[in-house]
Amino acid sequence: MRRASVGAGFTLVEFLVAMAVLAIVSVTALPSFEDFRARQRVRAAADNLYTDLQYARSEAVQRNAVVSVDFGTGTAWCYGIHLGAGGCDCATANSCNIKVVSGADYRGVQVSSAAFTGSDTETGYQIDPRRGQSVDSANTPVTGTVLLANQNSQSVRADVNAIGRVRLCSPDGTVPGYPTCPEE
User: Fold this and answer.
1) Predicted confidence band of residue 121 (pLDDT cuts 50, 70, 90)
2) Max Cα–Cα distance, the chain, nearest Å
3) Lowest mean pLDDT among 10-14, 78-82, 106-110, 142-146
4) Would you say which domain of life the source belongs to (predicted)?
5) CA–CA separation, 125 vs 130, rounded Å?
6) How far does CA 110 lie from the centroid of its chain?
7) What CATH number is associated with residue 148?
8) Which domain holds residue 157?
9) What's phi and psi for 117, nearest 5 deg?
10) Does residue 123 lie within any of the structural domains?
Protein backbone atom coordinates (compact mmCIF):
# COMPACT_ATOMS: atom_id res chain seq x y z
CA MET A 1 0.00 0.00 0.00
CA ARG A 2 1.37 3.36 -0.99
CA ARG A 3 1.26 6.36 1.30
CA ALA A 4 0.57 9.88 0.11
CA SER A 5 3.64 12.02 0.23
CA VAL A 6 3.71 14.94 2.56
CA GLY A 7 4.50 17.42 -0.23
CA ALA A 8 1.53 16.49 -2.50
CA GLY A 9 -0.41 19.47 -3.86
CA PHE A 10 0.30 22.74 -5.64
CA THR A 11 3.11 25.07 -4.90
CA LEU A 12 2.49 28.80 -4.70
CA VAL A 13 4.23 29.31 -8.05
CA GLU A 14 2.07 26.68 -9.76
CA PHE A 15 -1.07 28.24 -8.29
CA LEU A 16 -0.08 31.74 -9.47
CA VAL A 17 0.69 30.47 -12.99
CA ALA A 18 -2.73 28.75 -13.14
CA MET A 19 -4.45 31.97 -11.98
CA ALA A 20 -2.55 34.02 -14.58
CA VAL A 21 -3.63 31.65 -17.36
CA LEU A 22 -7.23 31.80 -16.11
CA ALA A 23 -7.11 35.61 -16.05
CA ILE A 24 -5.76 35.80 -19.61
CA VAL A 25 -8.45 33.44 -20.90
CA SER A 26 -11.16 35.42 -19.09
CA VAL A 27 -9.97 38.79 -20.44
CA THR A 28 -9.90 37.51 -24.02
CA ALA A 29 -13.31 35.82 -23.77
CA LEU A 30 -15.15 38.74 -22.15
CA PRO A 31 -15.53 40.96 -25.28
CA SER A 32 -16.97 38.10 -27.34
CA PHE A 33 -19.33 37.24 -24.50
CA GLU A 34 -20.57 40.85 -24.35
CA ASP A 35 -21.08 40.78 -28.12
CA PHE A 36 -23.05 37.55 -27.73
CA ARG A 37 -25.24 39.10 -25.02
CA ALA A 38 -25.92 42.22 -27.13
CA ARG A 39 -26.88 40.05 -30.10
CA GLN A 40 -29.16 37.95 -27.87
CA ARG A 41 -30.95 41.09 -26.63
CA VAL A 42 -31.70 42.09 -30.24
CA ARG A 43 -32.93 38.56 -30.95
CA ALA A 44 -35.17 38.61 -27.87
CA ALA A 45 -36.67 41.98 -28.79
CA ALA A 46 -37.24 40.88 -32.40
CA ASP A 47 -38.81 37.57 -31.43
CA ASN A 48 -41.09 39.34 -28.95
CA LEU A 49 -42.09 41.89 -31.60
CA TYR A 50 -42.87 39.10 -34.06
CA THR A 51 -45.05 37.32 -31.50
CA ASP A 52 -46.87 40.52 -30.54
CA LEU A 53 -47.60 41.48 -34.16
CA GLN A 54 -49.06 38.01 -34.74
CA TYR A 55 -51.01 38.39 -31.50
CA ALA A 56 -52.44 41.74 -32.65
CA ARG A 57 -53.56 40.16 -35.90
CA SER A 58 -55.26 37.27 -34.10
CA GLU A 59 -56.95 39.68 -31.65
CA ALA A 60 -58.43 41.66 -34.53
CA VAL A 61 -59.88 38.52 -36.10
CA GLN A 62 -61.02 37.00 -32.79
CA ARG A 63 -62.70 40.20 -31.57
CA ASN A 64 -63.99 41.08 -35.04
CA ALA A 65 -62.75 44.63 -34.46
CA VAL A 66 -60.00 46.86 -35.80
CA VAL A 67 -56.77 46.63 -33.82
CA SER A 68 -54.02 49.27 -34.19
CA VAL A 69 -50.29 48.85 -33.71
CA ASP A 70 -48.22 51.98 -33.07
CA PHE A 71 -44.49 52.51 -32.54
CA GLY A 72 -42.29 55.04 -30.79
CA THR A 73 -38.69 55.06 -32.04
CA GLY A 74 -35.26 55.95 -30.66
CA THR A 75 -33.54 54.91 -27.47
CA ALA A 76 -36.74 55.29 -25.40
CA TRP A 77 -38.74 53.21 -27.88
CA CYS A 78 -41.99 51.40 -27.30
CA TYR A 79 -44.89 49.91 -29.16
CA GLY A 80 -48.51 49.52 -28.28
CA ILE A 81 -51.46 47.44 -29.41
CA HIS A 82 -54.82 49.14 -29.16
CA LEU A 83 -58.40 48.07 -29.78
CA GLY A 84 -59.92 50.50 -32.25
CA ALA A 85 -58.85 52.65 -35.17
CA GLY A 86 -57.54 55.62 -33.21
CA GLY A 87 -54.18 54.16 -32.38
CA CYS A 88 -52.36 54.90 -29.17
CA ASP A 89 -49.31 56.61 -27.75
CA CYS A 90 -47.26 53.84 -26.17
CA ALA A 91 -45.29 56.37 -24.13
CA THR A 92 -48.46 57.54 -22.34
CA ALA A 93 -49.73 55.42 -19.46
CA ASN A 94 -52.96 53.49 -20.17
CA SER A 95 -53.17 54.79 -23.74
CA CYS A 96 -52.94 51.35 -25.34
CA ASN A 97 -55.67 49.06 -24.06
CA ILE A 98 -54.35 45.65 -25.21
CA LYS A 99 -50.59 45.71 -24.70
CA VAL A 100 -47.58 48.00 -24.33
CA VAL A 101 -43.94 46.98 -24.66
CA SER A 102 -41.18 49.29 -23.47
CA GLY A 103 -37.66 49.34 -24.84
CA ALA A 104 -36.46 49.54 -21.24
CA ASP A 105 -37.05 45.77 -21.12
CA TYR A 106 -34.30 45.30 -23.76
CA ARG A 107 -31.23 47.18 -22.54
CA GLY A 108 -29.00 48.36 -25.38
CA VAL A 109 -31.62 47.76 -28.10
CA GLN A 110 -33.43 50.53 -29.91
CA VAL A 111 -36.03 50.83 -32.64
CA SER A 112 -34.02 52.69 -35.27
CA SER A 113 -37.01 53.14 -37.55
CA ALA A 114 -40.64 52.16 -37.94
CA ALA A 115 -42.08 53.14 -41.30
CA PHE A 116 -45.31 52.08 -42.97
CA THR A 117 -46.76 53.01 -46.36
CA GLY A 118 -50.31 54.25 -46.78
CA SER A 119 -52.26 57.45 -47.01
CA ASP A 120 -52.14 58.30 -43.31
CA THR A 121 -49.68 55.94 -41.68
CA GLU A 122 -46.12 56.61 -40.66
CA THR A 123 -45.28 54.76 -37.47
CA GLY A 124 -48.12 52.28 -37.21
CA TYR A 125 -50.94 50.49 -38.92
CA GLN A 126 -54.37 48.96 -38.36
CA ILE A 127 -55.51 45.39 -38.83
CA ASP A 128 -58.69 44.67 -40.74
CA PRO A 129 -60.64 42.12 -38.67
CA ARG A 130 -62.26 40.33 -41.61
CA ARG A 131 -59.09 39.45 -43.48
CA GLY A 132 -56.31 40.14 -40.98
CA GLN A 133 -54.74 42.58 -43.44
CA SER A 134 -52.52 45.54 -42.55
CA VAL A 135 -54.40 48.68 -43.58
CA ASP A 136 -54.60 52.43 -42.98
CA SER A 137 -57.74 54.28 -41.86
CA ALA A 138 -59.05 54.32 -45.46
CA ASN A 139 -58.73 50.50 -45.51
CA THR A 140 -55.89 50.75 -48.04
CA PRO A 141 -53.30 47.94 -47.74
CA VAL A 142 -50.17 48.92 -45.83
CA THR A 143 -46.65 47.50 -45.81
CA GLY A 144 -43.85 48.49 -43.51
CA THR A 145 -40.70 47.73 -41.60
CA VAL A 146 -39.47 48.03 -38.04
CA LEU A 147 -35.70 48.00 -37.50
CA LEU A 148 -34.30 46.88 -34.14
CA ALA A 149 -30.57 47.47 -33.57
CA ASN A 150 -27.99 47.42 -30.79
CA GLN A 151 -24.91 49.56 -30.12
CA ASN A 152 -22.77 47.10 -32.13
CA SER A 153 -24.82 47.78 -35.31
CA GLN A 154 -26.31 44.30 -35.19
CA SER A 155 -29.89 44.53 -36.39
CA VAL A 156 -33.05 42.60 -37.11
CA ARG A 157 -35.81 43.94 -39.33
CA ALA A 158 -39.49 43.01 -39.07
CA ASP A 159 -41.24 43.28 -42.44
CA VAL A 160 -45.04 43.50 -42.39
CA ASN A 161 -46.65 42.79 -45.74
CA ALA A 162 -50.05 43.92 -47.02
CA ILE A 163 -51.79 40.70 -46.02
CA GLY A 164 -50.57 41.14 -42.43
CA ARG A 165 -47.80 38.58 -42.35
CA VAL A 166 -44.61 39.36 -40.46
CA ARG A 167 -41.14 38.19 -41.45
CA LEU A 168 -37.90 38.70 -39.53
CA CYS A 169 -34.53 39.09 -41.25
CA SER A 170 -31.08 40.56 -40.58
CA PRO A 171 -30.30 43.44 -42.99
CA ASP A 172 -26.55 42.80 -43.08
CA GLY A 173 -26.50 39.22 -41.84
CA THR A 174 -24.93 40.15 -38.48
CA VAL A 175 -27.50 38.29 -36.39
CA PRO A 176 -27.31 34.53 -36.87
CA GLY A 177 -30.56 32.60 -37.04
CA TYR A 178 -32.27 35.04 -39.40
CA PRO A 179 -31.99 35.12 -43.18
CA THR A 180 -30.30 38.14 -44.73
CA CYS A 181 -32.93 40.69 -45.77
CA PRO A 182 -33.61 41.16 -49.47
CA GLU A 183 -32.72 44.54 -50.92
CA GLU A 184 -35.60 46.99 -50.76
Assistant:
1) low
2) 92
3) 10-14
4) Bacteria
5) 15
6) 8
7) 3.55.40.10
8) 35-169
9) -80, 165
10) yes
